[in-house]
Design a protein that fits this description.
7-stranded mixed beta sheet; binds S-adenosylmethionine
C-alpha cells in the first residue's frame, strides 16, 4: 500500500473526513480531561499526523502539549513536519520516523496521557490487535485515554471485531469512556481509559505486526 497516496482520500472521502472529525473531538476532550501538564500524546502509525496537529492547534492548552507521532513513511513524516511548521507547533509536536511495531521504538518515549490509534486496527490480524492492546499498558500513564478506530463496513466483520476489541481492552484493565459510530456508520471510534499502573515494555522485540491483512477471524 502506498500510504502517502492513501492519505489523498481525506480530500474526497466523506467517511474519512467524518472519522477525522470524531477523532479530533476525542483528542480535544482527552486534552481537557488530562490534569497533568504537559499533556503527552503518542500517535502510533500516525500518518501525516493531521488529527493530533489540528487538535493541538485548536486547543487553548496548546502550549502544554507534548506530542510524539510515530510513522514509518518518510514522505508522510516530511508532510507532517511541514504542517507542524505551518501551525508553529515545532516546540509541541515532533515526528519520529521509525517502526511503530518494535519495542525499541518506545524506549526513549515517556508513557503518554493520550494514545491515538487511528486507522490501525483494520490493518492488523485479530491476534495482533490483542498484542497491541496488551502493549498499551506499557505506553500509557494511569488514566491515559486510548482513542482507536475501526472500519465497520469494509471488511465485513466490523461489529464482531469491535465487540472483540472492547473485550480485549477490558481484559487488560481498560474501561470504555466513549463509543461513537460516525454519521455514515462506516467507522467506529472508541476511547478507553487505562485503570492500571504503567508496566515495563514487554520483553518481546516486536510488539505487534502491521500486516495490512484485514480479513480477520475472531473467536471473541
Ligand atoms: C491507515 S493509515 C492511518 C494513518 C493515520 N493514523 C490516520 O488515521 O490518518 C496507516 C499508517 O500506518 C503507517 N505504518 C504502517 N506500518 C507502520 C510501521 N511498522 N510503523 C509505523 N507506521 C506504520 C502507514 O505508513 C500509514 O501512514
Amino acid at each position: 500500500m502506498d500510504w502517502a497516496e492513501w492519505h489523498k482520500r481525506y480530500e474526497s472521502v466523506p467517511s474519512l473526513q467524518e472519522r477525522l472529525a470524531v477523532v479530533c473531538e476525542e483528542i480535544s476532550l482527552a486534552i481537557s480531561a488530562t490534569r497533568t501538564k504537559p499533556v503527552r500524546i503518542l500517535s502510533i502509525c500516525s500518518g501525516d499526523g493531521r488529527d493530533v496537529i489540528l487538535s493541538t492547534a485548536a486547543s487553548k492548552l496548546r502550549k502544554s502539549i507534548s506530542g510524539v507521532l510515530i510513522e514509518l513513511n518518510p514522505d508522510l513524516v516530511a508532510r507532517g513536519r511541514s504542517t507542524i511548521k505551518e501551525f508553529s507547533l515545532q516546540e509541541e509536536i515532533s515526528f519520529q520516523c521509525s517502526d511503530a511495531t518494535k519495542s525499541e521504538t518506545y524506549r526513549s518515549i515517556a508513557p503518554a496521557h493520550i494514545v491515538v490509534l487511528s486507522g490501525v486496527f483494520g490493518n492488523l490480524k485479530y491476534e495482533d490487535v490483542g498484542l497491541l492492546i496488551d502493549s498499551l499498558r506499557s505506553l500509557c500513564e494511569p488514566k491515559a485515554r486510548v482513542i482507536w478506530t475501526r472500519n465497520l463496513n469494509e471488511f465485513g466483520d466490523g461489529e464482531t471485531v469491535v465487540g472483540g476489541i472492547k473485550k480485549l481492552f477490558a481484559n487488560v484493565n481498560f474501561t470504555e469512556a466513549s463509543y461513537t459510530k460516525t454519521p455514515s456508520g462506516v467507522f467506529a471510534v472508541g476511547t478507553h481509559v487505562y485503570e492500571g499502573e504503567t508496566l515495563n515494555l514487554p520483553a518481546r522485540p516486536v510488539l505487534f505486526r502491521f500486516s495490512g491483512f484485514w480479513k480477520v477471524a475472531t473467536d471473541a
